[in-house]
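Entry for the shared binder. Reason: the reviewer on the internal report wants the predicted structure included alongside the sequence.
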Amino acid sequence: MTTPSRGQLDAIERARYKLRQADMALQYLRHVPTEIAADLRRARSISHPDLRLDTFFFSCLGLAKSAYYIIKDDQGGRYRDAIHSWRMNVLNDKGRTQFNRMMTLRNNDVHHGRSDGKTLATMIPFERSNDVWMYQSAALGISRTVTEHKNPDGRTVSSYDGLQGSMSLYVEIAGELCEASSACERFIAQLNSLIDAVKAANVPPLSALQRLWLWFRTTILRLRD
C-alpha cells in the first residue's frame, strides 16, 4: 500500500483501505458455508463451524469498524459534524438501528467475548463443475426444475442444480434475523456511504488552536464521566 499523504484525503484513503480489507474478510466468510457443505457431502465431521464463521465475521466487523474510527478521530474530530449529518440525513431510523447494532456486536466480541450469533442449518445452491447438463437439457428439450428452500432469515434460496445442506451464522439486527455475510455487506456499504459524505463535505484541516481546544474539551468530558 502506498503511504497516504498528510493532506485532507489522508484519513479518507486509510478508511477506504480498511474497507477493502473488510471486503476480503467478507469473501472468506461467504465461502465457509461451501466448505461445510463439502464436509457434509463427504460424511466428514464438521470441524469447528462456529469458530470458522465467528472468526471471519468478527474480522470483517473489526476492519469495517476501524474505518469509522479513522474518520471519527481524525485531527481531534474535524469530521464530527459531517458524521452527524450523515447519521441524521442519509440513514433512516432503521438504517441507524442497523448501523448501531453492528457497532455493538463488535464491542460485545472485544470486551466480553460474546458472539450474539447463532450457527444454524441452512441450504445453499449446489454448484456444478461444468455446464454439460445445462447444454444437454437444452438440446433434448428437457425442462429444468427449480429447487427452493426458505432459510432461517426468511430468504428463499433457489437453484436449477439443486440445493445442499450447510451451516451459516445468523445475528439479530433491528428485530430481524440476518445472515452474517449479508449484514456485513450492508455495514460496509453504509461505511462507504459515510466516507463519500465526509469527502463531499470538504472539511478544512483544523488549526493547532482548534485541535488543542478539542483535546481539552474531550479530556474534561472524560474526567466528568
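Summary line for the report: Confidence is low (pLDDT under 50) at residues 3-8.
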